[in-house]
Amino acid sequence: MKEDSFGLEADTYLMRLLRAAAEALQSEEHVLNKAFERGSAAFYGGVNQGLAYHLYETTLVYLIFKSWLPLTEVVWDAHKARGYGGAMDLVVFNEHKPRYAFEAKWWNYGKAEVLFEHDISKLRHFKSQQDARGFLITFWWASADKLDAYSRKVANVATQNGWQRIYQARFPIQVNDLEQPHFVLDAIEV
Questions:
Q1: Closest by Cα among 14, 150, 143, 119 to 57
Q2: Are 111 and 76 in contact (CB under 8 A)?
């Protein structure tokens, strides 16, 4: 796994959480690929496998939630956090008070800003109600030849909207017909 922390090293607590998230996703890539290998090659041979299979965001958020349970106080699909400013995909607490709020999205290369509008609005509202930082976690994958271009696009969208990318992790995955594809987790502070 390759990581870029964009100066996040100073916040070792957040860095540890994001690294645990990326490691959990990388582990699931391996587990899911092994499950596909044990399945019918004729049936599954033409589909993307591992994390590139048609997984919903909630599946990926669940894996992150599970990886954070031993590390911190966290709620998933934070209905319990409603009294703290609104429902969030993940909320990390410190001494029973919200510290970080996270919304997660698959990155859409064409209309990312429009798709994120609702989640960004939720994060901003949450932050206005709490002394907490808000983050968008994005998931995407690309072939090796497009990885840097897509990564720059993520950074540009963040910058254009006054957000800051704080972390990126990438690791190899299996995708049909792509050369050296990678799965990417980007964390953007809003």
A1: 119
A2: no
How do residues 86-116 score in pLDDT, each as one tens digit?
A: 688 999 999 988 899 999 998 865 565 666 7
Enter the DSSP assignment of 72. S
Q: Where are the alpha helices (DSSP H) in 39-169?
A: 41-44, 57-68, 112-129, 144-160
Q: What is the pLDDT of residues 14-65, one digit of tens each?
A: 999 999 999 999 999 999 989 988 888 888 877 788 898 878 889 999 999 9
Distance, CA of 93 to CA of 164 (rounded, Å): 22
Q: Model pTM greater than 0.70?
A: yes
User: How many residues are present in the chain?
Assistant: 190
**Pairing relation of β-strands 133-142 and 97-106?**
parallel
Q: Which two tokens stand for residue 173?
A: 């995955």
